[in-house]
Amino acid sequence: VIVHDVNELTEKLFPIVEAMQKHFSAGSGTYYSDSIFFLSVAMHRIMPKEITQIIQVDLDLKYKTNIRDLFDEFDNFPEGAVIGIAREMQPVYRHTFWQYRRENPQTKVGEPPPDGLPGFNSGVLLLNLEAMRQSKLYNQLLEPAMVQKLTEKYHFKGHLGDQDFFTMVGMEHPELFHVLDCTWNRQLCTWWRDHGYSDVFDQYFQCEGEVKIYHGNCNTPIPED
């Protein structure tokens, strides 16, 4: 077990992610401490080179299977993919991309699966650090000018940190992501069902198959065995 000092990590992260924080943070400015919410975005820049793969998970998870099985998903990455991530299971990005969707009525952005692009949820992340280091495209997308360009194109203003960045990039470059089955990140939060999206909510929320990981996001209770 290796323990990493959160202050040291933040110090390394801040210059890399400072520019994107204003677009994807809840605060009104760029808070130094917010950088840790973008750890996954630049993990390949701050972890030792000998670490080639990392699984990063939220704390509000319940495992129904051996986490080792999740590592096998790295073998399923298509060429060019650098991150494994499951889709967001609420219409949060249908809401966030409202202006872009209004200007582009035929878009798949924010639409539900299987054909739409509902965005991603970063509760369970497979980071192929070696692929991230070698991907010219991915590293270009970390540049402040590229972040600015995409946020302007999509009229994007979020507050969910790395999840917002991956979602926005995924709209433009889906080839960078290996989409995990919903059973690897079975989100339970239903907040958006009661906040204006009850008519379409179930299209996002449904998940067939035996759940491998429950995600009690927005403080939702996780079912007992």
TrEMBL record:
Entry keywords, A to Z: Transferase
InterPro entries: Glyco_trans_8, Nucleotide-diphossugar_trans, XXLT1
Classification via Gene3D superfamilies: Spore Coat Polysaccharide Biosynthesis Protein SpsA, Chain A
One GO molecular-function entry: xylosyl alpha-1,3-xylosyltransferase activity
Keyword Transferase: yes
Pfam (any one): Glyco_transf_8
GO biological process: protein O-linked glycosylation via N-acetyl-galactosamine
GO CC terms of this entry: endoplasmic reticulum membrane
Ranges in coiled-coil conformation: none
PANTHER family from the UniProt entry: XYLOSIDE XYLOSYLTRANSFERASE 1
Record-given protein name: XXLT1 xylosyltransferase
Species name: Sula dactylatra
Gene: Xxylt1
